[in-house]
């Protein structure tokens, strides 16, 4: 692939992502939007948060993505008694045959290319925060020593709705590290019918590898090299800045928004819009990409106050209002 011209390299990577999307649709039914957004997270080099009720194939999606891309993957089931060392690893004191003692670092499951943090909001905030440094800086520090993570490194976390019993809300600082929050809903009747036929018989479909870790890293470089028009940049800034309850904001924004998205939201919109364009085989992102990604990018980076909740206004409804004014 290194011998290809830039256009040829782009088209080949885009074709492989198309194969990956088709492969996932053979095992994940009725979740086309979820599949494409998950692939966009990886193409953009970010982390994804999959939110939905149990039994909606969130875990299957993550394990299938690892198989499709040949990524070394590990799964951590987050529980209330999970400790940070159970995720990051720990130092143990060992004694050699000649009686000398020394500490040795035993890596935790985070040392992989794709970490599945299953039901992340069932662990305590202390353990949730253990992922914070790793997700942002791609290394962990244990007992004062730095340990670099493999490349590429991604976290795909699943989360149950916070209204369910035994869940803790994720810290705002950690939520901001997720490129997209992807809400997973119930499939429609036709998709559920196809799922029944495909998964309750004697044989079930399996995904075939479509990309390699090297392909994924090349895709991430292509995304960052992709041009983005001034009109798209203006739209991104207008949307994100309009959502902040600052002194010069509209009265409705100041009345309803507790806190708004920071600059990381603009970065996330820019990268994920270009990633969607790559996956779709387009050489530049469009305004439609920004509209499509507004909710996955913003819904976990802002919070409405009691006044908004008393109106029955959800965050997604409020983002729709922002989109109507920004475009």
From TrEMBL:
<protein>
    <submittedName>
        <fullName>MoxR-like ATPase</fullName>
    </submittedName>
</protein>
<dbReference type="Pfam" id="PF17863">
    <property type="entry name" value="AAA_lid_2"/>
</dbReference>
<dbReference type="InterPro" id="IPR011703">
    <property type="entry name" value="ATPase_AAA-3"/>
</dbReference>
<dbReference type="Pfam" id="PF07726">
    <property type="entry name" value="AAA_3"/>
</dbReference>
<dbReference type="InterPro" id="IPR027417">
    <property type="entry name" value="P-loop_NTPase"/>
</dbReference>
<feature type="domain" description="ChlI/MoxR AAA lid">
    <location>
        <begin position="250"/>
        <end position="321"/>
    </location>
</feature>
<dbReference type="InterPro" id="IPR050764">
    <property type="entry name" value="CbbQ/NirQ/NorQ/GpvN"/>
</dbReference>
<feature type="domain" description="ATPase AAA-3">
    <location>
        <begin position="47"/>
        <end position="180"/>
    </location>
</feature>
<dbReference type="GO" id="GO:0016887">
    <property type="term" value="F:ATP hydrolysis activity"/>
</dbReference>
<dbReference type="GO" id="GO:0005524">
    <property type="term" value="F:ATP binding"/>
</dbReference>
<dbReference type="InterPro" id="IPR041628">
    <property type="entry name" value="ChlI/MoxR_AAA_lid"/>
</dbReference>
